[in-house]
Amino acid sequence: MAENAHDPIIDTAKAWLAQDPDEITRVELDTLVRDADAGSEIALDELHSRFDSRLSFGTAGLRGRIGAGSARMNRVLVSQAAVGLAAFLRSREASPTVVIGYDGRTNSDVFARDTAELMAGAGVRAILLPRLLPTPVLAFAVRHLGASAGVMVTASHNPPQDNGYKVYLGGDDDGSQIVPPVDGEIAEQIERVAREENVLELPRNAEFETADESVVDAYVAATAALLPRGAEKLSVVYTAMHGVGWRTFSSVIEAAGYSGIASVPEQQEPDADFPTVSFPNPEEPGALDLSFALAREVGAELIIANDPDADRLSIAIPDVESAEGYRQLTGNEVGWLLGWDAARKAAASNLDDAALACTIVSSPALGAVAKKYGLNFVETLTGFKWVSRVPGLVFGYEEAIGYLVNPDAVKDKDGISAGVAFLAMAAEGKAEDVSVAQMLDGFTETFGFFASDQLSVRVTDLSLISAIMSELRENAPSTIGGVSISSVDDLLDCSGDLPPTDALRFSLDDGSRVMARPSGTEPKLKYYIDVAAPAEQAEHARGVLTSIRDDLDAFSKRIAER
């Protein structure tokens, strides 16, 4: 008898195999099971990596690598999620409706159709969006169609081999992403389905509804309204990063009567392999190289980049000191300018209880903007599931290039509407002979100097993240970057109005701030560093920023080498 014959993980894999409706993952898993049965330790280890855990459903929904097994994204897991979500919705109302969207990633359309058929089979009215579309269109559709919930099949800017499953709620949640305790309640239903049901025996109904283009047209109209007709024309380069943004973005621009947009041809159409980038995230080094090349060719005044599902936005502007001829703005810099623009408009309109919001790891500069214009300022936990719920919100952002500029239409980050809003702001500046670079200088003159940096510690062993966080909690340094630490806030302990979260906030004597937290979507620990100073002390503040980053890097390496 083979050495591995009695390892229970083989029986677990066989049980999974018996209910897998996907030929590709069945073949993949069958090969592993046969090899493990024959004594292959490599195959057995791979089965353990796939079945020792389950891809957990949380406030970010599901997200992971495509493949067979409970710790991967696949049709079995998605089917269990769909039926579990359906049970949750039916426990809340008699006749729920769910709208389902999908992007251009591998299996996004398959997972979306499975969801629609299983939702309909479970007695939920299911509406599938007409084609692959950006995540913000799905978020818009939840409110526009008065749906009980929305499901978006996407892994956003994750690596090509990943996919995911995001859930939005209608009704009192007004189209925002789920938050606790709802995520736990849905997870319980999903786990019940996984325990009690065979995916192949779940009732399906192929007579679900498919939305027509009017849903997309309504989103386009609501977004085009952000760009005034007759706005000053700029030469603009746009990239969809091999995602689904171009068709919708170009429709919005056309509806606004705008022209002069040059799209990066190699990245314009959806491609699940993302062939021209090593990582499909506009923030990653090299991701905008093709945009820079086209911008130099056409003399672009602005580069607008969306991530693959178009819920994030990155901006680059001309810079003669850069080797590429362009400088990519940080997520905070884009947030400052959009927030400043939104604050001026809100103040001019005398909006009652208007608020600006950003996440706890974003720059505190937005607070200075809110103070100047007499607006409320709210810091939330990371994620737009929190930002979107701020009362009176007129603008919200997170430093990870996410922006909410049109809360009356979309209760989520929206890279298309943010791109249009930034274009409108830049066009207004051009009409007054003010460039985006000059706007940033004006921000410093008005609010003081702010600068931010990040340090990511990517790991293969997730226990290293816990080790670093434990060391920071138990043996925190007394100084960082040569500046004394005045206080440490552990956000696992409730802090003010914030729910508990695994994060640490270090406040330094000079007003600088460091946040440390594990990433919610990737295997890495992230440090967020912020410094502030009067405009005339900018150079000193930059030096402090560098010193803080160097110290954090050295600290993390010491822990990793133990």
UniProtKB/TrEMBL annotation:
Transmembrane segments: none annotated. Coiled coil: none annotated. The keyword Phosphoprotein applies. Its cofactor is Mg(2+). Signal peptide: none annotated. Pfam families: PGM_PMM_I, PGM_PMM_II, PGM_PMM_III, PGM_PMM_IV. InterPro entries: A-D-PHexomutase_a/b/a-I (IPR005844), A-D-PHexomutase_a/b/a-I/II/III (IPR016055), A-D-PHexomutase_a/b/a-II (IPR005845), A-D-PHexomutase_a/b/a-III (IPR005846), A-D-PHexomutase_C (IPR005843), A-D-PHexomutase_C_sf (IPR036900), A-D-PHexomutase_CS (IPR016066), Alpha-D-phosphohexomutase_SF (IPR005841). Residues 55-193, 218-316, 331-440 form the Alpha-D-phosphohexomutase alpha/beta/alpha domain. Belongs to the phosphohexose mutase family. This is Phospho-sugar mutase.
